[in-house]
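User: I'm writing a tutorial on reading structure tokens. Could you give me a worked example: one chain, its sequence, then its tokens, then a sentence or two explaining what the tokens reveal?
Assistant: Sure. Here is the example chain.
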Amino acid sequence: MALEKPMTRGPKYLPGDSRKRDDVHSMLRVNLAGEFGAKRIYEGQLSVLGKGPKGDILRHMADQEAHHLETFETMVAQRRVRPTALRPVWHVAGYALGAGTALLGEKAAMACTVAVEEVIDAHYQEQLSTLGQDEPDLSAKIEEFRLEELEHRDIGLDHGAAQAPAYSILTGLIQRGSRLAIWLSERF
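And here are its predicted structure tokens:
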């Protein structure tokens, strides 16, 4: 009995393949949700720390997140992507996370930034890997925003995030929550 030769894999997507469209829609949906959540986190942090010494740093990062959000809002509208149904949840949860960590102190707020941005970096890298050579404009934006998210992580580290009380516990919880939010937003 002759063994069948395994089929070689062709291109990831073929022209008109609905799977590609579904993947891109899922990416845009979750990116829009994530940037909305990030905007709300910074709004919460600014409500507590905005008039203090970290106010300008937080505003800088919030402004970049607002730009990311506007970009993904435009892409979602252009491609007629259904936004996540969980936006009201992220509206409250993002603000609560931002204000809550800021109430724990400036270092805890920076630890929140580090935790979220590390998850987003990995998430954006996965998206870039999935896209490969497809969607060069989307890939370019994701890479641009990924680098800015890493800048935010570095700002957090430079401003004492690792000295936050219970840093590893705090960041671990926030990272788990961020991964769950990504998983939910991709689907709902």
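What the tokens reveal: The two ends are 48 Å apart (CA to CA). Confidence is low (pLDDT under 50) at residues 5-14.
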